[in-house]
Design goal:
The protein is an alpha+beta fold. Helices cover 56% and strands 14% of the residues. Strands 1, 3, 4, 5, 6, 7, 8, 9, 11 and 12 form a ten-stranded mixed sheet that branches. A two-stranded antiparallel ribbon has the order 2-10. Strand 7 and strand 8 form a beta hairpin. Helix 2 runs antiparallel to helix 10 and helix 12 runs antiparallel to helix 13. The chain is elongated and about 95 Å long.
C-alpha cells in the first residue's frame, strides 16, 4: 500500500512539494525554539554553578535588576567597609564595575559585550568556579591564549572572553598584542579566555578596575562587590551578620540569583511555548487542507477502488500513509534547515538539541496521522455507486 501512497504523492508534485516545504518550516521553527530554550537553560545552570558560594552585594535600587547589576552603584568607602569585615575572605573578595558596550540580543540577557572592571590579582574570583575547583580540581576561565590575570600597573590592557574576542575579531582571530577600541580609547589584548558557555564570562572584556572607573567616569563608584565568606562561617550566620552591619544593602546569594534568573526566563519560555504550539497547529492545518483537497479530487477514483473490492481499511491506511510520508520528509527537511540556521546564528553545532530534533520528527509523524485522519474517514464513507457517477 505504501507504493500506492507514494504514487499518489508524486502524481501531485507541486502541491506535495509546497506542503512539505510549509510543514518543514513549521518543524524548523519548533526545533529552533526548543534548541534555543535548552541552550539558554544550559547557560543558566552553568552560570549558577559559577556563582555557587559567591555573594554579590548591590545597591538597594538594583535588587530586581538583571544580572550582572548594570544599574547598581556603590561608593568606594562602602566597599572598603565591607571588605574589612571579619567574616569576609579578602583573598577572593573584590569590587566589580559592569558596563555594557554592546546591548543584548534578547531581553533579560547580559549585554552582548560588556566591560568588567576588576582589581588586578582578583580575576580568578570572578572567572573561576571556586567550589568545583576545590572539590574536583576543575577550573573555568582558563586562558586560550596569553594570560588570564593582570599585574599591578596594567592600565590600557584587556582580557577578552571568547564571545567578546569573536566580536572584536570580525574576521580571523584575535591575538595577544592586538589592539581594540573601547569608547575611542585603544587597548592591548593581554589574553583570551577559553569558551565556558557562561555569558557573563564569555561576553566579558576584563579591565583593571581603576582604569575602567576613569574610562566611564565612575572614579568613586563600582557596580557591585563580589564577596566570599570565610570557610568556617555558616551561610545563614553570614547573612545575619552582613544585614546587621549593612541593613540598606542588597545581598544577592546563590539562591536569590537562581530565583531572579528563573523569573527572567519565564517570559521567554511562555513565548517560545506559544509559538511552538502555533507551529504545530499550522502544520496540522496544512496537512489537513492538502489531504481534504486530495480526497475531493479522487472521489471517483476511490469509488472505483471500492467497487472493485478495495476495503475501507485499505483506503484508510493508504490516505494516512500519504500524510505520514509527507510529514516524515518535512521533518527530515526541518532538521536540516534548523541545523543550518543555528549554525549561522551561533556558529556552534552543539546548540542543536538532537533529542528535541528526533522528538520533533516523531511529533511530525503524529501530525501527519492527525492531519490525515479526517480526510481518511471521509473517504471511507464515500458510497461507491455515487462516487463513480461523481463529476
Amino acid at each position: 500500500m505504501i507504493d500506492i501512497a507514494w504514487k499518489n504523492i508524486t502524481k501531485r508534485k507541486t502541491r506535495s512539494i509546497l506542503t512539505i516545504i510549509g510543514v518543514a518550516f513549521c518543524i524548523q521553527l519548533m526545533i529552533i525554539l526548543i534548541s534555543i530554550t535548552a541552550h539558554k537553560s544550559g547557560e543558566v545552570h552553568k552560570m549558577l554553578s559559577l556563582i555557587a558560594g559567591k555573594v554579590f552585594i548591590q545597591a538597594p535600587a538594583s535588587e530586581k535588576s538583571e544580572f550582572p547589576p548594570l544599574l547598581s552603584n556603590l561608593t568606594i568607602d562602602t566597599v572598603q567597609e565591607i571588605l574589612k569585615k571579619e567574616y569576609i575572605d579578602p583573598a577572593y573578595s573584590t569590587p566589580l564595575l559592569f558596563k555594557a558596550i554592546v546591548p543584548p540580543q534578547y531581553p533579560n540577557e547580559p549585554p552582548l559585550v560588556m566591560v568588567v572592571g576588576i582589581s588586578p590579582g582578583k580575576e580568578k574570583a570572578y572567572i573561576q568556579d571556586l567550589r568545583r575547583q576545590e572539590k574536583m580540581g576543575i577550573l573555568t576561565g582558563e586562558a586560550e591564549i596569553g594570560d588570564n590575570s593582570f599585574i599591578k600597573g596594567d592600565e590600557k590592557i584587556v582580557i577578552l572572553g571568547s564571545g567578546a574576542a569573536k566580536y572584536y575579531a570580525k574576521k580571523g582571530k584575535i591575538s595577544v598584542g592586538d589592539k581594540i577600541v573601547i569608547r575611542k580609547k585603544p587597548f592591548e589584548v593581554k589574553g583570551v579566555l577559553k569558551e565556558t558557555s557562561v555569558a557573563i564570562i564569555d561576553r566579558a572584556v576584563l579591565m583593571p578596575l581603576s582604569y575602567a572607573q576613569r574610562l566611564f567616569g565612575w572614579e568613586s563608584l563600582v557596580s557591585s562587590v563580589l564577596v566570599i565568606k570565610k570557610s568556617d562561617i555558616d551561610n545563614d550566620d553570614f547573612i545575619k551578620m552582613f544585614k546587621r552591619d549593612f541593613p540598606r544593602l542588597v545581598i544577592i546569594t546563590e539562591e536569590k540569583s537562581k530565583k531572579n534568573i528563573e523569573e527572567a526566563l519565564v517570559g521567554m519560555h511562555q513565548f517560545f511555548n506559544m509559538t511552538n504550539n502555533t507551529a504545530k497547529g499550522a502544520a496540522i492545518i496544512m496537512i489537513l487542507a492538502m489531504m481534504i483537497m486530495g480526497v475531493n479530487e479522487r472521489i471517483k477514483e476511490i469509488g472505483t477502488l471500492r467497487a472493485i473490492g478495495a476495503t475501507r481499511r485499505t483506503i484508510l491506511v493508504t490516505i494516512l500513509q500519504e500524510s505520514t510520508i509527507l510529514c516524515f520528509i518535512a521533518g527530515i527537511m526541518g532538521i536540516i534547515l534548523s541545523y543550518l540556521v543555528l549554525q549561522f546564528v551561533y556558529h556552534d553545532t552543539r546548540v542543536l538539541n538532537i533529542k528535541s530534533a528526533i522528538e520533533s520528527v516523531v511529533i511530525t509523524v503524529g501530525i501527519g496521522i492527525i492531519g490525515g485522519l479526517y480526510p481518511a474517514i471521509r473517504a471511507i464513507k464515500i458510497n461507491p455507486l455515487e462516487a463513480i457517477r461523481y463529476e
